[in-house]
Amino acid sequence: MAIRSAGLLIYRRASENYEVLLVHPGGPYWAKKDEAAWSIPKGLVEPGEDVLAAAKREAAEELGVTIDGIFRPLGEYRQSGGKIVVVWSIEADPVLDVNAIRSSEFHMEWPPRSGQVRSFPEVDRAGWFSLADATLKLLKGQRPMVVDLLTHLE
């Protein structure tokens, strides 16, 4: 059975267009990557956990804020490695400040084989991107989410 993750595609109206909130993964492997490295806030669904509850939990862990409102199912998307991401869209609170995110941390041995365990934020930054820019910044397997969001909004 494929690994399942859940996430939120958070959007806002910007003039006559839309923008989406994307997060950049923290840690040394992603530090110098930008294009095709960003993601929506998402993470693994725990055994027995409601999928929407998992999406909300993961967004809170990665952004440091609770996302609430009307969640609309967007779809299921297959990522590299076969993981399935179940996604909901939600219009953002207008005061959601991406410069004030507070991500949870993870621990890993760094540098490799050094015996030293260091902490890194799950997300090192977040940003609002136009739909066109988002398709360049997003991981390849998440790009169809932007097209589906636009279809839902029209």
TrEMBL record:
<feature type="domain" description="Nudix hydrolase">
    <location>
        <begin position="1"/>
        <end position="151"/>
    </location>
</feature>
<dbReference type="InterPro" id="IPR000086">
    <property type="entry name" value="NUDIX_hydrolase_dom"/>
</dbReference>
<comment type="similarity">
    <text>Belongs to the Nudix hydrolase family.</text>
</comment>
<dbReference type="Pfam" id="PF00293">
    <property type="entry name" value="NUDIX"/>
</dbReference>
<dbReference type="InterPro" id="IPR051325">
    <property type="entry name" value="Nudix_hydrolase_domain"/>
</dbReference>
<dbReference type="InterPro" id="IPR015797">
    <property type="entry name" value="NUDIX_hydrolase-like_dom_sf"/>
</dbReference>
<dbReference type="InterPro" id="IPR020476">
    <property type="entry name" value="Nudix_hydrolase"/>
</dbReference>
<keyword id="KW-0378">Hydrolase</keyword>
<dbReference type="InterPro" id="IPR020084">
    <property type="entry name" value="NUDIX_hydrolase_CS"/>
</dbReference>
<dbReference type="GO" id="GO:0016787">
    <property type="term" value="F:hydrolase activity"/>
</dbReference>
<protein>
    <submittedName>
        <fullName>NUDIX hydrolase</fullName>
    </submittedName>
</protein>
